[in-house]
Amino acid sequence: MPPSNLGRNEPRTTTVTPRSICFTRLLMNSMTWTRQRKVFYILERDRCTNIKSVGNPVTHNAHYYGAGAWMKDPLGIMGTETILVMANYESNYVVEEFENMDMFKVGVTRRKYTLPYTWDGTGGVVYGPYLYFNRANTPYIVKYNLKTEQEEARISMSGYTARNNYYAWGGYSGMDLAVDEQGLWVLWGSTGNSRRLYASTIDVVRNVITHNYALNTEQMSSMGNAFVACGVIYCIDSYNSRSTTINFAYDTKTGIQWNPNIQFTNQYTYNSMVDYNPRERVLYAWDRKRQVTYPLTFEEH
């Protein structure tokens, strides 16, 4: 047996394996992501007020699928201009990535991600290096690492029945993920709460549901869409009326509910996706094949 070097004044030799390098990189990436989330929250939370008005939609592109989701990473980890597209609401497991808006408009993809499962609905979101989506016909939210292209976690939604209660436009839209200044949310439907909307917060480090809100909305099947901004849940009355309103708001910080009666335009009369981007402070939407954004005006402090 060779003599031990312990206790001698000789440098220790550490064997570095590819596996240890990979783990270290993942750990550093996780730390960076956590730090950026905290910095973003601190910077944005003091700006938070209620939405005062929604501007007219700005059309950016058109897609051959009538329904779908498009988004940017609000933390900027995937690139501040990078666009991800989840086309259609079923039977698809390929996510397209575009370098910027110009490449998106001409249809030049930078990358394609093949997910391990198909998704339901148009409620997928990107948050940092992760894509979150509802695995088709299940009560699970899948956390997919876009850097490693691997499933990293699976979050179970207790009380959720797949393909049972969803927005008025249909499309298996019963689970709608959302991101705001406070973090990751899921808006979802159930046979409970008189089939009204539920909202839940997600701890993205522990990958668990942390808070549930049973909201006094109209039934989800009568609702156009919903989103979260500055900790306030907003519901849109119709998805197919050209002129409609945001007719419900609930502040999760104060517990106050009201009807803001904010005018909202479905320019192409089939709005299957509405999501808030807290970095840009605009709404992203997919309205009858068109990808649009809505400028927002917030109340003064």
From TrEMBL:
PANTHER family: AMASSIN-3, OLFACTOMEDIN-RELATED. Disulfide bonds join 48-230. It comes from Desmophyllum pertusum. SMART domains: OLF. This is Olfactomedin-like protein 2A. One of its GO terms (cellular component) is extracellular space. The keyword Secreted applies. One of its GO terms (biological process) is signal transduction. Its main location: secreted. PROSITE patterns: OLF (PS51132). The keyword Zinc-finger does not apply. Residues 47-300 form the Olfactomedin-like domain. It is found in: Secreted. Keywords: Disulfide bond, Secreted.
